[in-house]
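Page 37, continued from 36.
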């Protein structure tokens, strides 16, 4: 009768020994031989009439090894389930001499494995964590800027004969050239649309009075200040390096326009907020303020989630069977290639950090019964679609929307990724209810700077 014994190697690192009697595998082996002889197609013999001795001679060693290893797997799995041993990955075989397996001389066998046992641990008390809820101050300037953006977005563009204002919109063709305006062979040619005011103050005067077809040859660093130059370089498809700003371009006007801003009246307010009783400019400003505040509140919630992450990741103490895990990375890692000790050591810190967060996440999910239903994944897919399409003229009842969602529900990878994203969001939402953040007022610029510095620190 098969037995499994356990021996401690080190912390959370155990050796399992599986001992098999002949009776544990021989009946299955003999049955496999008979089944194989019934199915085998061997020239000179009718199907099902191949002598068992010939089958044993030809395939016996392979079938014998398979049945022995199946018996080992069965005993291992049964032991781990019965003893409720929660392990990392799977048991790793220790040095085993498989030449001992002799189909002509069946014996009792022993096989050794190592396992890494998952640790017990406690989460920190989030209620005691020092956290901050940042309250971004919405200024009149922010409201003015958003109103201007909306007026421009919904405004009308009219054609102009001559460049007369910093507010003129220029359709331009950038053609790479030298300082004398001679076109560079195989150089870059790209169309763009730019407001006159985005050029440097000194360069704007060069456009005044210009008409369609007129050109200017200049370096990018002369035409644009640093902030605008960065996105111009990106739009042109150039690499952001020291040479990009030095390039010369002949810039030709292909069209001149002037954006007429949407007038602030009840028709415009109703266009943006139908049925919401926004009738006056004061109502409109209040609505804009609410939306801006809601946006920054969302960003502040993300910051609380970030603080919760660090509280959990930095203050949860978890012991790991490091020797086992390093051996697993070395021999059984995701890419299934044997790694050197140096590669394992270099990879291990990131691996253990990710593994720690996985254990923390699993514990939160299990202890708080955080679940994701198929309907939540459908709603997620639908919201993604609406986001991609800009939300225009889309409704839940449209058949093609339903067809798209059901198609995505059949995509296993998409469903798994969506499940994980929704579950992670729910986990952080739960964690955010456990903390007691102190409110702190902050400007939008300072908040943005703080987030950028934090992201830079973690990269």
């Amino acid at each position: 009768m098969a037995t499994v014994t356990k021996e401690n190697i080190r912390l959370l690192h155990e050796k399992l020994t599986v001992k098999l009697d002949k009776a544990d595998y021989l009946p299955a082996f003999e049955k496999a031989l008979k089944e194989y002889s019934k199915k085998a197609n061997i020239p000179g013999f009718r199907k099902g009439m191949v002598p068992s001795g010939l089958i044993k001679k030809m395939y016996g060693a392979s079938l014998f090894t398979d049945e022995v290893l199946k018996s080992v797997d069965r005993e291992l799995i049964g032991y781990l389930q019965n003893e409720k041993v929660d392990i990392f990955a799977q048991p790793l075989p220790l040095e085993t001499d498989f030449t001992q397996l002799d189909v002509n001389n069946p014996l009792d066998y022993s096989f050794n494995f190592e396992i890494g046992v998952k640790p017990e641990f406690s989460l920190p008390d989030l209620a005691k964590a020092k956290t901050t809820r940042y309250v971004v101050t919405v200024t009149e300037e922010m409201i003015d800027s958003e109103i201007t953006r909306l007026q421009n977005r919904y405004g009308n563009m009219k054609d102009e004969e001559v460049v007369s204002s910093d507010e003129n919109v220029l359709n331009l063709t950038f053609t790479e050239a030298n300082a004398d305006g001679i076109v560079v062979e195989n150089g870059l040619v790209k169309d763009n649309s730019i407001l006159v005011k985005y050029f440097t103050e000194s360069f704007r005067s060069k456009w005044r009075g210009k008409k369609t077809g007129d050109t200017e040859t200049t370096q990018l660093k002369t035409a644009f200040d640093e902030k605008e130059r960065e996105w111009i370089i990106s739009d042109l498809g150039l690499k952001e390096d020291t040479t990009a700003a030095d390039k010369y371009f002949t810039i030709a006007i292909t069209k001149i326009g002037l954006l007429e801003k949407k007038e602030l009246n009840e028709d415009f307010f109703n266009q943006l907020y139908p049925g919401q009783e926004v009738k006056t400019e004061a109502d409109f400003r209040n609505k804009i303020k609410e939306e801006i505040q809601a946006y920054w509140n969302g960003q502040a919630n993300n910051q609380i989630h970030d603080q919760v992450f660090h509280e959990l990741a930095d203050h949860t103490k978890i012991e790991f069977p490091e020797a086992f895990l390093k051996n697993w990375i070395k021999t059984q890692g995701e890419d299934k290639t044997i790694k050197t000790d140096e590669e394992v050591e270099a990879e291990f810190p990131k691996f253990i950090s990710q593994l720690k967060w996985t254990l923390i996440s699993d514990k939160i999910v299990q202890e708080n019964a955080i679940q994701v239903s198929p309907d939540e994944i459908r709603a997620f897919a639908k919201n993604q679609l609406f986001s991609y399409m800009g939300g225009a003229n889309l409704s839940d009842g449209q058949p093609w929307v339903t067809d798209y969602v059901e198609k995505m529900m059949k995509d296993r990878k998409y469903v798994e990724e969506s499940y994980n994203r929704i579950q992670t969001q729910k986990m952080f939402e739960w964690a955010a209810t456990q903390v007691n953040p102190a409110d702190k007022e902050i400007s939008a610029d300072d908040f943005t700077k703080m987030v950028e510095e934090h992201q830079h620190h973690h990269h």
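The chain has 14 helices and eleven strands. Flag for discussion at group meeting. The mean pLDDT is 92.
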